[in-house]
Amino acid sequence: MSSAIWEIRVAGRVGTSVLAAFDELEASTGQVETVLCGRVADQAALHGLLSRIQSLGLELIEVRRIPPHHDQP
After folding, report:
1. Domain CATH for 58
2. How would you list the strands of the sheet with 4-11, edge to edge?
3. Residues 36-56: what's their mean pLDDT?
4. HEC states along the chain?
5. Mean of the per-residue pLDDT values for the chain?
6. What is the C-alpha to C-alpha distance for residues 50 and 63, in angstroms, rounded to an integer?
7. What is the number of domains present in the chain?
């Protein structure tokens, strides 16, 4: 797997101190969930992100790979 963009949804409104653990991703915080989105280098890096989510006690809702646009290499 080469670098891909992933969207990771976790339950609840995650605070800025916890979001600092994911500074390589963009974060969008809503009332019921927080969405982390960004480019992940490979499968090992994705598993590392998921491990970080678990170690911080966040409830994982969804992990989804964003399909590449046809005009991007």
Report:
1. 3.30.70.250
2. 26-29, 33-40, 4-11, 60-66
3. 96
4. CCCEEEEEEEECCCCHHHHHHHCCCEEEECCCEEEEEEEECCHHHHHHHHHHHHHCCCCEEEEEEECCCCCCC
5. 91
6. 9
7. 1
